[in-house]
Amino acid sequence: MDLKKLKELLNKHQSGQATEAERQLIETWYASFSDNQEQGAFENSEQKTRARERIWSGIEMSPQPIPQRGFTQRYLVHFISAAAVLLVLGMSIAIKQRMFSSNSSSIAQQASVPDFRSSTGRKERKMLVLPDGTQIWLNANSTMEVLANYGDSVRRVHLSGEAFFDVAHQPSKPFIVELDDLSVRVLGTAFNINSYARLQTIHVSVDRGAVQVEKNGVPLEKLSLGQSLVFAKDQGTYALQETANQGTWRDGKVVLAQASFEEMAQVIQNMHGVTVKKPANSKQTYSYDLTLYADRPLSENMEKICSIHRLKYRRVGDELMLY
Q1: d(Cα 99, Cα 302) in Å, to the nearest integer?
Q2: Range of the domain at 150
Q3: Which one of 198, 224, 242 terminates a domain?
Q4: Nearest 5°: CA angle at 164, between 163 and 167?
Q5: Same structural domain, 188 and 302
Q6: What is the pLDDT of residues 56-113, one digit of tens each?
Q7: In the 8-state DSSP scheme, what is residue 209?
Q8: Torsion angle (degrees, nearest 10) of CA 100, 83, 74, 117
Q9: Within a 10 A sphere around the Cβ of 85, how many other Cβ atoms?
Q10: Distance in angstroms (rounded) separating the CA atoms of residues 280 and 54
Q11: CA distance 132 to 130
Q12: Which of 135, 258, 281, 312 sits most deeply, having the most CB atoms within 10 A of its CB?
């Protein structure tokens, strides 16, 4: 199959316009590769390294601002399609990548070494598409690492911050998200994880399918559609909740339910790039039940926040001081 024809078929496949025959043609083309065909594909380690860099260079989408209300799935598909073209053009290289770590003794040493890392700053988010088709939305102030040997027998990533995952179904290769205190194991599902280092809790919520939350390799709970697990870092305990989709931040909407002051402040920092400070010398416990929108002015969101506990605020540089 020539390159031009392949690109045309891939674009049609991503947009849902491919016929059954065209979809079958793509699947047949992909299945035509085998490990045996790729033996001796690289002459030296430098070529292998360049090939790996080409694969991962297609993963990261351009940084995007925090999405506004009305941000649609159609807009996301535009980025997914662009990424898919880049990735499949290097698909034969991706298959060759299986040869990179043939030495079993080196695999264990490299298992926790990042093969790819992507980070976001304030008021920024990114969408990533991994070579297996897994889609990841990375929220502001977050870092995602794809660990070495991804896809050999397990697909392992590390998250600091918040991300929404739509994992490609591969029963023989579990997908594991490692956090500082927990890990989340799935086969193919969609779920959200909020695990910012500055917060005292970790939230795992399921949008589709099921996940298993583990601590030090020991299963804690299996979560299904509409369920969430809230883990308290300092106490090492957790609670289950029935919640709505926690991934609505992708559309610029965050629903806070009995949220702590720190959780509220993290949302404001993600949306507006400023830091909210508690009233000086205050020992009060603050709780927040409200909905915040990224496309609303900072002043409007802060008025809603302050009204809950009858407070005011003043701005000093990038800090908002409540009083």
Answers
A1: 54
A2: 3-15+43-100+109-242
A3: 242
A4: 120
A5: no
A6: 555 655 455 554 444 334 334 434 444 443 443 333 323 223 222 223 223 333 455 6
A7: S
A8: 60
A9: 14
A10: 51
A11: 5
A12: 135
Q: Are residues 230 and 142 in the same domain?
A: yes
- Angle of helix 3-15 relative to helix 20-31, nearest 10 degrees, comes to 120
**One domain for residues 169 and 307:** no
User: Which parts of 120-236 are beta strand (E)?
Assistant: 124-129, 135-138, 143-147, 155-166, 175-178, 183-186, 190-195, 201-208, 210-215, 218-224, 227-232
Domain assignment of residue 29, yes or no: no
- Which pLDDT belongs to residue 35? 39
186 plus 295 within the same structural domain: no
Distance, in Å, from the CA atom of 103 to the CA atom of 267, rounded to the nearest integer, reads: 45
Residue 120 falls inside a structural domain: yes
Q: How confident is the model at residue 37 (pLDDT cuts 50, 70, 90)?
A: very low
Q: What local confidence, expressed as pLDDT, does residue 199 receive?
A: 97
pLDDT band at residue 43 under the 50/70/90 scheme: low
Q: What is the mean pLDDT of residues 155-164?
A: 97
**pLDDT at residue 289 is higher than 70:** yes
CB 209 within 8 Å of CB 225:
yes
Domain final residue pick, 209, 242, 275: 242
In the chain, the number of structural domains is 2
